[in-house]
């Protein structure tokens, strides 16, 4: 039998990888597909890499921009089994990595607020969350694994077309228009983070300074209408494209011509659309203004986890007084 697990003895930090563990019985010279290190055997490494995963559509299809919902469910199983626990982007930049010693943080982000991420099923007066939507899958998984908390980061578009605005609940006939606010509140109540993805997925390179600020400020205003006072401090840069003046992404203001009110915003974390796993926030080279992400499609997630395992390069929470991350 071909063994894919590592032969491990000792406590956290003691790693013994024998020939067998490297992928075969003696005499089997094939190179291993993966060296899977049981989470408990990982050496602490709070300067290690943290995957920031990026999902778009969740549904039936599997493609570059769409994750089949059953595969999304398997992604959560895979991450959990490989010793990862979710944290939000906000936690990442604030170094609040409340993951148990020996385990690794993963950040799971959802862009564009499409219906497959969070859908209600309605029958008469009963409203329930679609178990095949990302939020439904996450909740079912968390029910089986209480240590898997609500820690996704949802980068929403309050005013986009094509059903993307707030999970498809804007401007659609009848009562559905009323549901965008409950959904945002439910996400926050579950522990998830809300993130600014602009009003309608603007290409900042084509906008005036005023337009950039309007897009960010009005998106914040829309979230604030649903969850008053919510600190919307993470920005997923649409298409990964900066405005000419990058500072406008970090902070700015916009005066509402109707009310005369000035809306100010501050962004603490900017998510890019690609770039591989993120550096640890304790690494001096970590840049909260350019957090790279990994798009999840096909077998990319498993390949990534295998690569991190092979190189032992993932962030692993330390124990005791050596621990850098706040609990
Ligand atoms: Zn997007």
Structural features, described:
The chain contains seven helices and 14 strands. With 327 residues, the chain is α/β, with parallel strands linked by helices. The longest helix is centred in the middle third of the chain and has 18 residues, at 209-226. The chain is globular and about 60 Å long. It starts with 51 loop residues before the first strand and ends in a 16-residue tail after the last helix. The protein binds zinc ion. Zinc ion is lined by residues 111-112, 197, 201, 238.
SSE string, helix = H, strand = E? EEEHEHEEEHEHEHEHEEEEH
CATH hierarchy, class of the largest domain:
Alpha Beta
Low-confidence stretches: 1-34, 170-177
* Overall pLDDT level: 84
């Amino acid at each position: 039998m071909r063994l894919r697990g590592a032969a491990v003895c000792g406590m956290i930090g003691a790693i013994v990888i024998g020939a067998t563990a490297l992928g075969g019985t003696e005499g089997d010279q094939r190179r291993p597909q993966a060296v899977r290190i049981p989470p408990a055997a990982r050496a602490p490494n709070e300067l290690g890499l943290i995957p920031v995963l990026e999902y778009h559509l969740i549904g039936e299809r599997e493609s570059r921009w769409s994750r089949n919902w059953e595969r999304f469910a398997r992604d959560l199983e895979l991450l959990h089994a490989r010793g990862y626990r979710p944290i939000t982007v906000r936690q990442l930049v604030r170094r609040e990595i409340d993951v148990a010693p020996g385990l690794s943080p993963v950040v799971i982000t959802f862009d564009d607020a499409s219906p497959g991420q969070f859908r209600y099923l309605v029958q008469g007066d009963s409203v329930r969350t679609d178990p095949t939507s990302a939020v439904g899958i996450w909740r079912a998984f968390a029910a089986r694994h209480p240590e898997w908390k609500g820690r996704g980061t949802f980068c929403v578009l309050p005013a986009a077309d094509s059903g993307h605005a707030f999970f498809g609940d804007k401007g659609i006939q009848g009562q559905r228009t009323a549901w965008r606010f409950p959904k945002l509140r439910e996400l926050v109540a579950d522990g998830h983070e809300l993130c600014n993805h602009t009003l309608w997925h603007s290409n900042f390179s084509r906008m005036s300074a005023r337009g950039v600020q309007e897009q960010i400020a009005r998106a914040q205003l829309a979230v604030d209408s649903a969850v008053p006072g919510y600190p919307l401090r993470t920005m997923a840069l649409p298409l990964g494209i900066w405005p000419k003046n990058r500072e406008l992404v970090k902070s700015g203001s916009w005066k509402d011509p109707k009310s005369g009110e000035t809306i100010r915003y501050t962004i603490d974390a900017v998510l890019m659309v690609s770039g591989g796993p993120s550096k640890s926030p304790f690494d001096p080279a970590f840049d909260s203004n350019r957090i790279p992400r990994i798009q999840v499609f096909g077998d990319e997630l498993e390949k990534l986890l295998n690569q991190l395992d092979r190189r032992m390069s993932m962030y692993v929470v330390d124990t005791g007084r050596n621990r850098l991350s706040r609990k």
